[in-house]
Queue: 4 jobs
Job 1
Amino acid sequence: MREIRIRLLWHKQAQFAGYLLAEQLGLGEDAGVRIVCEGLDFSCKHVNAVLTGKTEMCVASPAHLLESADPAALRWLMAIQQESPLVYPARRSDGIATLANLAGKSAGVWPGHEDLELRWMLARAGLPDDAVTRVEMPDTVGPFLNGETATGQMTCYHELHMVEHAIGTEDLVVFDGKASSSTILKDGLIASAKLVEDEPEVVQAVVDAVLEGWTIAFDEPERAIAAGLAARPDRTRDEEAAQLAAIRALSLTGATLSEGLGFPDPAHMANVVTAMQELGEPVPAIEGLRDPRFWLAAPQRFRRSEWEA
């Protein structure tokens, strides 16, 4: 049995329900592949885990790939979510009503090349790259709640809810990149280029299993919630259910509805290139980094485009 380790983008939770189901149900084992999901490790996140050989695959974005130490050693195979989940809340009582009001203040961001979207948003709001001090933020919302940062990088399905629960919504203004068309996808399945070249049958088995897992998650949410709780008994059913519903909304939109579940929309990578260019960052050659062959060869029933609301 070939074991394939997938380093998740965050801690195990409903955000990764399809991957967790693929692992827990043994999807892929009929093809000789066992999937093992690994949670967040700040010392070696997502693409770095693949580049250093700690895992064969990871959940990460085209931006993580292009900003990595060796983009040519990675391949973007598919994406489940089709919209960015990132939001940046701030307090009106701090005198913040627009992104421009963040000038001279600090923003919490996760470590490891996670700030491209925020920088792009601020640039399109007319702020120079050094106008806002970016502070590495751990896997909590403490720095924002404690007033150490004026805003913080959060997801609409997890950290934002924690902030709203802690301080309410009346004083909050929540920014995202939609108004300025500066959103960047956070989701994707990325593999080692060597694995793709040397063991394509293994890669195909993983892609098929992950797509099957996500199809089950969206068709049978109770099974997905149970998978999340099995991986994270410290969370509640309501937390997992709410998160799964948000992930479903982020996924069953855009290219999913025109192409099918998991489609690695080239527009997402093009968006990253535009952001890097506008910010003056060097852009690596992107030809061949997106590899849709395995998604295209997956069973149609697991990459369908029609879903119930």
Job 2
Amino acid sequence: MSSARPSRSARPSRSARLSRSARLPSSAYPRTRAAVLAAPAVLLAAALTGCSGGGSGSAGSGPDQGPGTSVSVNLTGKAAAPGRPVEVTLARGKLKAVSVTAGGGGALAGRISADGRTWTSERVAAPGTAYTVEARDTDGGSDRAAFTTAAAEKVNKLSLAPGRNTAVGIAQPLSVVFDHPVKNKAAVERALKVSTSKGTEGSWGWLRDYSGKDRVDWRPEKYWRPGTKVTLDARLNGIDTGADGGWFVRDYTTAFTIGPAQVVEVDLDRHRLSLRRDGRQVMDAPMSAGTPGGDKASWRGTAVLMSKEGTINMRSETVGLGDAYDKMVDYSMRLTWSGMYAHAAPWNAGYFGRANRSSGCLGMSDSDASALYGQVQVGDPFEITGSEAKGTVAEGNGYGAWNLSWADWQAKSALK
């Protein structure tokens, strides 16, 4: 763009400026009203053509442009910086419509400013993507520009729970675990959009997953209402997660439904387990939990049923208990990443309802374990009380977020 502007008295007439802008012979401009009305298209075309090349993104007074023409696109060239909104600015006149389309066919939505001069995309430009910009002004002028963003040197990915189109219990949080560290937590959290069918309010909370990875969970203040439909729209494409984390290069979605209100109540001191549905007890069984006084004790607090794993091989060395056991175990229901399950334990029958003598799990008879396994669903809370425990389930050891007060959980948001 030229830094000097002619004085009002020295400025050429509108028709002269348009002739110089297009660099067409004077015979190409019949002196008719129709030609004058069509001229803004030539003006905008020249300006946008100028901003589609070059490195600054601003139209200047080059050999193919008249003085004072100025439209700019903030991202230009073949290695534009991703992670920024796209801005299209018209120095004079007003924009009528702008579209920014990615090479794969997706479009960036955006808004024109109140003065009509600038259009800004609502989302940022993604890495390694070719974009086409098309603009029209209120006088009928139109043209296009193009740019490509630099590719991501490192890509971050994530895993989501629960899975798409599943039905889960009333304590199941939305849980997002990231492959690489997330330094820009606020930017990531702003891109995670939760919607519910019952207007449920909740909060994201950042924590360290049991695997050591960064994780963010979303939970309501209280357990979900049965029948609630939940959708997560993770609009992450183009978000930089920070040093050592890399960029997201796609969006993610998941949706699930909350099932019946079921709660499993576990009393370590009474050695009993009961299942309540909609507030009514539907099962009560004797059990034996972890041996108190050491690493074999069970956890207390609210643990959420993570998975129903059926018959699995349980080996003590995988949970740091040496060679204490190596068994095939039926009706296995995982409660923590650290290895606490509810399951059938017929070898411990002499202690059911009498004493806690397991290696940390909640053991029952085959028939009781089968009955419980058949009725519980992933996401059901196990509310574990009693003195014979080694501590409270941590928020990253499975889904332990319910063991924090609502205020403490909200404080873990990056947007607090």
Job 3
Amino acid sequence: MGNWTAPSAVERELAEARAHGDWPAFLDALSLTELFVPQSRAYQDAHPDSIRRERTYFPQIAAEAYVAFTAGMLPAPTSELVFERTTLGWWIDAYPAGGPPYLAVNPGTPFEVFLPATPAHRATWAYHFDRKPRYAGQEYNKVHALHVGGPLRGPVAFGLACGAHLSVRNGMFWNAIGYHGEGYTREREKLKDSWGVTTREEWLRSTERLLNADMVSPVWEFALRVRSSLARDFAGPVEIEHWRHATEATLRANAERAGEPRITLDGVTVAEPRPTAEIEGEIAGVQRVIGRIARYEQRFRADGLLSNNKYVRSVEAWDYGRASQMARWGLGARFGSLAETEDAVVRAGKVCRLAYRSWEDLSVGFILGRCLQFDEEEYGHWYEEMAAAHRALMTDPGSPWLNLAWS
């Protein structure tokens, strides 16, 4: 293979086993990695619940084979060709009687392997697959990167790093801009189930809303901005009672100005005064939010996510980080092109630079946004998953947060 570099830990382990002729080790490693099967997009759209196995003739072995790729060897996404995720176990169960004599793993690449697929060989596959050897490269909450085929420097890499929480949580390559994710059908299902996105137009609209921080609660952001303003004015930490008082005063002042004339696109207008009960309810609601934020920050400090003298600046990272991911999810689902994905990822990086001062600053903003939306102060998986991702990204030598300068 000459100077060929393995794209990821998966291919490196497989290549080392192959180079040493250690086929048991090769099958052990192959047993716990994902294998992607090429499919016609038109066929898959018509048959989303099935995966078609196609026989392909390979002159190098003078025989036919079925085809599968490891994640790091997948080509850039195109509109016509998609990939569905399987495992070696799927191939064991799905290999038909009279199927071709080989399974081609990563054919046409510097790392192609043609596994004999006779019934006796498939029984050996099953032996290794059933043993399920530990394979560290597939663990969640670890930093996985493409060393070939994914950006490690530059604006695209920076934008991808801004959404790295979810990549690390899901065991995905943080820098895979040519994203296939969990396979075409699964990526479409996830967008439909989690976001209600089923069309290109809906994907574009969701991406834009995230890039504009239009999904994060304005109440959370309002409370945090009041405190940030106080911190600038007084050049130091802001006590929670001072924060509460200033927030209440701001809300009351805004309410008192409701009857003042204002120049709008419709001319000079006067907003109707708001009922007292509505104003009091709004104040009480924001005070509850302040309490929740303060308690989450206390937990962040106890768990080492937030330095003692720092606070969460903004939760807009919750939208920006998801915008970086949404750009890739849309590509995996073929709602957008690679160029559109790169553009959205770069834009996500730019707005993060404007809103935050460091990776830690961005990270705690993202985690707080997620917790405020989902966790309900249970400190359950919504929190623990992101805390684990934060620790991995702040400590792993291969983390983009340790290798990409913020400024």
Job 4
Amino acid sequence: MGGDKAPRLRLVVIAADEGGPRLCRGCGDPLMPSAKSTAVFCKDACRSRSWRRMRRTRARTEAVTAGARAECPQCGAEWTVGVDRLVSAVYCSPVCRKRAWHTRRARADEG
């Protein structure tokens, strides 16, 4: 399983061979003989998974191309926004987030 809790998918190479059964573009299983001639996925789950994967890949490519960088206010670490961390991330890790919280709390207790 990946970091996003989605199962890792195997890469499937589909040849343009008309002799064998048609294979699903998502999982590689054979398509049902009753499937439409234009069908490329065996079920809705494969189609949805493929669409989400393509959307995620496109977003990451755009983020890297745009070069949007962010810096952790606690330790100064840098990352590419939307690739290494979420777009809404402020801190680089839970450790830095906790350190910042403790620092803010200590300042509030002093004054």
